[in-house]
Amino acid sequence: MALFRSPDTSGRVTALLLRTVLYSLLALGLIIVDKRYDQLGKIRQYLSIVAYPIQVAVASPFQGWAWFRESVTTRDTLRADNARLAQDLRVAQFKLQRYEALEAENMRLRALRENTAGVTSRFVIGRVVQVDLDAFRERVLVDKGARDGLFVGQAVLDAGGVFGQVTRVGALNSEVILISDSTHAIPVQVNRNGLRTVAVGTGDSAMLKLPYLSTSSDIAKGDLVVTSGLGGGFPPGYPVGIVTEVKRDPAQSLADVTVKPAAALDRARELLFVWLKEPSAPPPASAQPSAAVAANAPAAAAALASKAKSKATAPAATKQARAPSPETAASPATAGSPASAASAESAASAASAASPATGDHP
Q1: Do 132 and 167 reside in the same domain of the chain?
Q2: Rounded Cα–Cα distance for residues 117 and 22 (Å)
Q3: What single DSSP character describes residue 128?
Q4: Is pLDDT at 195 greater than 90 in this prediction?
């Protein structure tokens, strides 16, 4: 057997090394092209279509086992669940009486501020089909994609509060980054006093951090943290978490604030993709002056007409004042007296002297 073996293995090693270098350069070139020009986006979408049945097939056994376990639940467990749900329903109905009053007050305040009734125009419900098992990545795969209108950066909620954002969209599915991911940050505010800050992920699905609050900030354990709506990524007022711990070190300028997420980041199966309402455009600035001019047009026209009428009646009154009255002209005593003739001559001379100034010719 030794006769059939090649004693020289340097050629084989050189070929393997050449292949390794060639494939490494090819992989590096593809990474650069995809990073700068996004030329592999369509290929990635086609691959996601091909991989979708495999993902469904992998998730089917777990879904089937969950269905089977729910189907064989004993009657005692169902009765206990029924009693617990009835108790929760009574408590919820009691709280609803107070919530209805608060909702009515909220609507009155919104009407005074002429604000909109909601912040979302529509929504789509998706189901989690895969969870990223990487310890440094908090992401899930959902069975909704570009055909459902999803887009990168879209806000994702669950029944408890804010869940995350869409980071990648395929034709049939999409990837969602959780708010607990170490690379994610979300603008928030304290619901009690409106204190604004930023919540960042820690890589742990049960904990968020508020790293930009000073030690003198008004925040305490038990405060509700909600979205502020700044930046337009998330609708305002949705719960993000509850403050569980506040540490203030006199030697540090910033406090160590820990928040427990309101959403079930490690248990949620159904997610809500929301579209924010577009803000209504303000009326053009030229519309208000034109409306004011139109409103004042009748008053201006009436003032001009009154001024013209006063100018038209002034000359007639002057002529009537200069002309002798019929009774005076008809009186024999007045007409025949020398005093009357002298006064008539003096009035005529005065009228002749005043006619150039007033513009009235005899």
Answers
A1: yes
A2: 61
A3: E
A4: yes
